[in-house]
Amino acid sequence: MALPDLSATWNGRGPLAVGLLPLALLYRGALALRALPWQLGWRRPAPLPVPVVVVGNVVAGGAGKTPTVITLVQHLRAAGWRPGVVSRGHGRTDRAAVRVCDDATGDPARLGDEPALIVRRTGAPLAVGHERPAAVRALLQRHPTVDIVVSDDGLQHWALARDLSIIVFDERDVGNGWLLPAGPLREPWPAPVWGGAPALVLRTGKPSAPSRPHPYPEYRATRALADAALPVPAPDEPPLRASQPLADWAAARTPLGALAGIARPNAFFAMLRARGLTLVHTLALPDHAPAAALTAALQAAATTAGAPRHWLCTEKDAVKLHGQPLPDGVTLWQVPLVLTPEPAWYAAIDRYLQGWRRTRAADHGAL
Questions:
Q1: Element containing residue 231 per DSSP (H, E)
Q2: What's the pLDDT tens digit per position in 301-313?
């Protein structure tokens, strides 16, 4: 469902949100019809040979799923597992039904921007495809050593069997609590998480209002910008420039530009300003905006009077802008986002891992 930016509307139950309630009722009806064959047992998710962890959310817009996937994959590897990742691959131009990544460069045209970022940050084997079970099978066929799979999004992809669901919320919680398009909810909340597997909530921002009660274990994480920006090379430019501390720009009050093609660009701009940076020009583009749109917007902005020399972008945009032509005199920098879950979240994940490890050992012993 392609929607305009209704984030401000979804914060409350004003006239526009109320006016959209009939469409929300239609959406709820369509959701119920879609769920019926699954609820009656006419359709069932096909079992998979390895544990699957789904990282998703029930609200539209970015809540921190991709940073959570990256953090989880890194933790799984440190715990001795060999994780792989599957994703829908939003924004890719490759029309293959399933595409398995065979290297660590992460081509966003073939994979999509978020999967490309995951590959570059983790080096994990990854497959993209609209049908997640097919993507898992293709991934395991190409990388048979993978012993656990993390699904980037897919909470509403009911054909995908899962052993654990991690539901990510940010400071918005559930907004006004209504379904799309009157509110931000992709599905009713709280409600049983699909598939009957255990679920837990990871909250990446303190709720701006009292959060909606739910029956799942809840954990906290902090999201913060890294202390330094990293250079995004232009064509034929080796990445030799050193990182740039944000504090130096803030102390010098250096005029900066910022662009973001993500679900909530203004949240990124607000985080930059909170670090004391002086943003004199911002470019907010649609989520998953392609490299051509990002570079065209940057080229146009660079011709305006008083345009800044240095521009900042997100890691998600940087994977597409790497090696793209930049306006004369312009440097581009990516500002990484650092997600830090509380230790109790890692401990909860480890308890599930220990259970899966015992099950796997028992299955092997029965062979």
A1: strand 228-231
A2: 999 988 999 999 9
Residues 6+ apart with CB under 8 A from 269: 258, 260, 279, 282, 284
Q: Is the pLDDT of residue 123 over 70?
A: yes
Q: Residue 2 — very low, low, confident or very high, per pLDDT cuts 50/70/90?
A: very low
Joined together, the tokens standing for residue 304 give 């305006």
91 Ramachandran zone, left/alpha/beta (phi>0; psi -120 to 50)? left
CATH topology of domain 227-335: Rossmann fold (3.40.50)
Q: How far apart are CA 149 and CA 156, in angstroms?
A: 17
pLDDT higher than threshold 60 for residue 317 = yes
My answer on whether omega of the bond before 192 falls inside 30° of 0, hence cis, is: no
Q: Which residues contact 83 (CB under 8 A, 6 or more apart)?
A: 72, 73, 76, 77, 124, 146, 147, 148, 149, 150
Residue type, 195: G
**Secondary structure of residue 214 in the 3-state scheme:** coil
Decide if pLDDT at 4 tops 60.
no
Q: Provide the token pair at 189.
A: 């909340």
- Ramachandran region, residue 107 (left: φ > 0; alpha: ψ -120 to 50; beta: rest): beta
- The token pair that represents 320 in the structure block: 């597409």
- Which pLDDT belongs to residue 1? 42
**CA distance to 139, 161, 180, per residue, from 40 (Å):** 30, 17, 25
Q: How many CA atoms lie within 13 A of 29 on its CB side?
A: 6
| Interatomic CA distance for residues 254 and 263, integer angstroms | 27
Token pair for 146: 């993978």
The angle formed by the CA atoms of residues 211, 217 and 222, to the nearest 5 degrees, is: 65
Q: What is the C-alpha to C-alpha distance for residues 184 and 224, in angstroms, rounded to an integer?
A: 24
Q: Where in the sequence of the chain do the CATH 3.40.50.300 domains occur?
A: 48-222+340-366
What CATH class is the domain 48-222+340-366? alpha beta
Q: Across residues 188-199, what is the average pLDDT? A: 85
Helices (H) and strands (E) in the chain, counts: 11, 15
Q: Are 139 and 146 in contact (CB under 8 A)?
A: yes
Q: In a 3-state reduction of DSSP, which class is residue 270?
A: helix
